[in-house]
Amino acid sequence: MDLEDLRALMSMIKAKLMNRPIALCDIGDADGLTSAALFLMKYPNGLVVFAPPSKVQRGWLYRLIEWDFVADLPCPGKAVIRADHHRTNKPCAKFEYYDPEAPCSAYMAAKGLNLNDLKAQDLVKVAIETDTANIVSREAEEIDMAARFSSYSEKIRLAKALAQGGLMALNEPWVKTIVERGYRAKELMLKIADQLPIDNVVNVYFSERVGSLSYRQLTIELQKRGAGMVNILVKLGSRTFRYYCGADKSRFDCTRIASALGGGGHPYAAGAQYKAPLLKPRQGLELFIKVLKDKLNMDKLSLVEVLNDTNGVSIRRLQV
């Protein structure tokens, strides 16, 4: 049991002992954060647990209880209300607010929780901007930064602050500190993007951690620069790998690759996390290459590896 699981277990026990409503929301982005804030608007005494899709999809722990509210995640087993828009997530709740054509899960969460005041509408609006990769407002950009670059405890505090004050919470000094952290990480992301070749399909492998980076932001940036599809594999540990995809859905479908790696998402944005065999960690990268070749119908791929070096980062081009 890791730290994420322990946090979840303690929150689950606390909620049940105190008879408080409990929510499970995606840990990774603004859609999950704003959905959590909407839940706390409806239930100010509620408890929120954040988790990644891979944990919920495969972890037995999240199946121990019936969740009062689940948003932006696969089915944990039992739930009263679930708000989602991912085509790859199967329904499970007593009351499903699910629409694969919806712009974000927060949009469905507001419906499921029957919230339509101005504060809730503002949160849904920024969630739509962030989840459709069409950020046009300062508030949406700052919420996106706060969601991506906050610690777990900061995410809990952010959800509570947004529930109480709406977007006015962005004026809090401690929130501004998190947002500034995100802007510094964005500078690093742009430096990496400047070094990567732009092709119709861009495949990138991070064989080691490179600072604090939002890989989803990198897929969006490379698409803005002309890539039709961006596939990023990040080595998180000796055997653990995380896949990120962004694509022009009129030409590509990210879910075909993400699903083959055990994940899911949308045609335009998807991801997965998986482990290589214990004695064959190299197979983590080999699986990524094999799935790309199979799903893209290509015999050979151009792959760019990103590495740390004394001057920041460097790249190495590979033919595989």
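Second entry:
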Amino acid sequence: MFARRTQIALALVTSLGAAGARADTIVVANENGQSLSIIDSQTSKTTTAAIPISPHNVDVTADGRLILATGMPAAQSGSHAAHGSAGGQLILMDVAGDAPGAPQVVTVGGHPAHVVPDAQGHFAYLTDAETNSVVVVDIPGRRVTGRIPVQNYPHGLRLSPDGNLLAVANMKSDTVSLVDTRNPEKAMHISVGKRPVQVAFDRSGRILVVSLNGEDKVAIIDVDARKVLRKASVGNGPVQVYVTPDGKAALVANQGSAAKPDNRVSVVALEDGKLIRNVTVGKGAHGIVIARDGRTAYVTNTYANTISAIDLGSLSAGKAYPVGKGPNGIAAR
């Protein structure tokens, strides 16, 4: 059994082709620092961009030209769980040039958490825990165009590889909503387990992995059958999750709590739900992303104010990069 799991681990990158090493640009939402850290992994050069919100989550458009960050205005944010004014915001920042452009603000209201753009850069989808909906933003028009009802306290969300399905983790309903982006008024809801926080599709779009913060597990879901295939035990307080490009494993960031932080990323085989390895990173592992060449994962360490790089060939943590206060969401381009 150990030998088979080792073979899975070593196969995570060998199946990705012969692409050479390249520099990654990593974007980190510093929730307690009201800023974004933009890091060149090759030179370690870090640019800190102040923004007018406490950013909980961040993503980058497919062309790599635009950063999207969500959160509450800094003066109103308090803790992430605090609901306040109707001033939730989406920040857009052009990074096509040598230096980040000035942040542009779209007021979305409520209490936004996560954001994902579609592949064309036309629309962004944001979860709003205050109205139990997904906010739809026209990116070129810089305006809200609608809301999609889901269930109680939506948090993490991701689009399927073909862009036709939006999966939303509803933390207080213990469900995941599946929304057809071509017909968004009809959503299906799947019971998955306690306190789902984030979701991740495999590259086929047929498997969905959900972190269950209230169970210290992940649920592995058959999307077509709309059912949980199995659950897998991970670390303490799992938060974000990401599936490897070959679809064989999920990486799960385990944050734990402020009193008892976890510092591990669990690597789980999707075929049988078995643990391949726990990779030690920094305190409070929260956000996770795999770089676009599929060779390196990056993890935010919320209580250490750093991010860690994980080599997916050896499944070991390498360099740590200092960032701002309370790093949370993370994206790569």
